[in-house]
Amino acid sequence: MSELTHIVKNMIQDKKDVVLSVLFGFLAGITAVGLFAANGYLISQAALEPPMYVLIAMVAVVKIGSFIRALSRYAERYYSHRATFTMLSDLRVYFYDKLERIGTSLFQTYRSGDLLSRVVGDVESLQNFFLRVLYPPIVMVLVFLSTIVFVSFYSLQVVICLLVGLILTAIIMPAWFAQKQKKVSSRILEERSQLSTDVAEWFYGFRELTIHQKLEEKEQHLVASSNRYIKEQEQAGIQSIFHQSMNMAVSLLVSWAVLAIGALLVAGGELDGLFLAMLIMISFIVFEQSVPMALFPIHYDESERAAKRLYSVVDQTEQKRPLSTQHNQCLYASPSIDFKKVSFAFLKDQRSTLTDVTVSFPAGSKTAIVGPSGSGKSTLLNLILKQFDAEGEILIDGVPISQFEQEIIWEKVNVVLQESHFFYGTVRDNLLLSDQNWTDEDLKQLLVDVQLPYLNLDDPVLEKGQNLSGGEKQRLAMARAIAKSGNLWLLDEPTSSLDSWTEQRLYERLFTQARNDTVIIVSHRLAGLEKMDQIIVMDQGKVIEVGSFSKLMKEKGYFYKLKQIEKSVLQ
Ligand SMILES: Nc1ncnc2c1ncn2[C@@H]1O[C@H](COP(=O)(O)OP(=O)(O)OP(=O)(O)O)[C@@H](O)[C@H]1O
């Protein structure tokens, strides 16, 4: 329930639409009852041949009633849908904001398709929360209470009959339907999430599936997933129609009961026959309010599950929120970074990716991190980006990293990771991702500087940079980092696909700009490291050597051996 309470609180911020929906819903319901009551009375009066003006006046009342009912129903739909759309849009923004904070560590727990299904599908499911769960019962109770007060002036027996009908159609039967529907609803959510996950994997892995000739097999799997989802939906559709019909049948039986009770009362002289048709008509229409209650538990259950699934993702972000933001000024200057006994494992109870790492990156220093694949180099950079929480202390300018907003760090860091994403658009669009203030002239010069003089700013870039070579992507990513005005550079093998000549030009450009900045480069290549202030050598998640190039070569340790191997391979 607590998750739905969040959503109710969220909706109450748009109080006006909520109140107007209830108000017009009540007006539409009560005018419908009044209209039918007037019709029933009119029929009975007409049989007694009253003066013409009485009939004309009553027909006029009925006409005005119909008009008010239609207008109120329209206003109710208008305000309730407006409130719903506002709620959905607020929810999307809220969840996007939360997901953005947690970043890539989200994928430790969720597959991308599942996340998509939660953020799109589950938010979509919540549209029924207001439209079918929150306000219709309020309107129903208000209309029923008003009707019962009116009917009590004519017959207490009919009041009891209506109350029994209300309890049956609005409480007992929906509760029974809910039991039956629960399993189906849960299967629908599971199948939707599975389908969404399969579709996402199919798209991401399309090329590999084609090359390994597994496309057809995967397609069949996808079709099977889709068929299961459709079948569950059909099942749910059939059940809900059945439940509505059952509820309607019971409400008609109640009307028959009103007719029988009314007839007995008229025969016994306890009720004026003039009002019998009116009471029957009232019982017909008043259950119009309770028939949709057949679907109330289904929508309630669906909304609750959707809210739970959404908030279970968000709760993670709450736990990871930084403590305070009071030190966010530190990153305006080139920062120093210190790791003190830092250990980290991606998953609990699994082997450590980093173990007792103690290392310093002084302000304005240039550091290279080298070591075999899988030794934890990229993970170390990711910890500086606050992508994950680690044990031990990470300090930026002497302040614990937990006290920095993740966004403040990202804002001030120039990053090139092993894989960079490129968006569908032009070269200009992809460069301006970092800083919108660059002029076309500056951007053209930047392309020349990163050794891409042949690219035009208006050249198209396809989704994920499909029309760019690996080396072009790396140079564009570097240009994007250069276009950003941070003082801390985190570069993870930024030139692994480049030839040595281009690589050297690129580094010249980079070091000219980053003269006073703190630079950390992860590299597999050992050439050109003489210029670095320090080299950190990692192996199996541990820092095994630290020092300048000449110091490490003199010590003839691990780095020296790596260098010898590289030399022998190149000879
Ligand atoms: N998202 C992840 N979830 C679980 N384990 C991961 C994840 N990313 C990396 N690892 C594991 O952590 C270890 C260190 O990975 P990391 O990418 O930091 O190494 P690296 O030294 O940068 O390797 P490379 O030089 O190949 O890029 C590896 O054993 C890897 O399998």
Automatic annotation (TrEMBL):
Alphabetically ordered keywords of this record: ATP-binding, Membrane, Nucleotide-binding, Transmembrane, Transmembrane helix
Compartments where located: Cell membrane
A Gene Ontology term for the protein's cellular component: plasma membrane
Molecular function GO labels: ABC-type transporter activity; ATP binding; ATP hydrolysis activity; ATPase-coupled lipid transmembrane transporter activity
Keyword ATP-binding in annotation: yes
GO aspect biological process, one term: cell redox homeostasis
Main location: membrane
Chain coiled-coil ranges: none
Membrane topology: Multi-pass membrane protein
Limits of the ABC transporter domain: 337-565
Chain segments annotated as transmembrane: 18-41, 53-72, 133-151, 157-178, 248-268
Ranges where the ABC transmembrane type-1 domain occurs: 19-288
Top-level taxon: Bacteria
UniProt xrefs under PANTHER family: ATP-BINDING CASSETTE SUB-FAMILY B, TRANSPORT ATP-BINDING PROTEIN CYDC
Protein name, as recorded: Thiol reductant ABC exporter subunit CydC
Species in which this protein is naturally found: Halalkalibacter alkaliphilus
Gene that encodes it: cydC
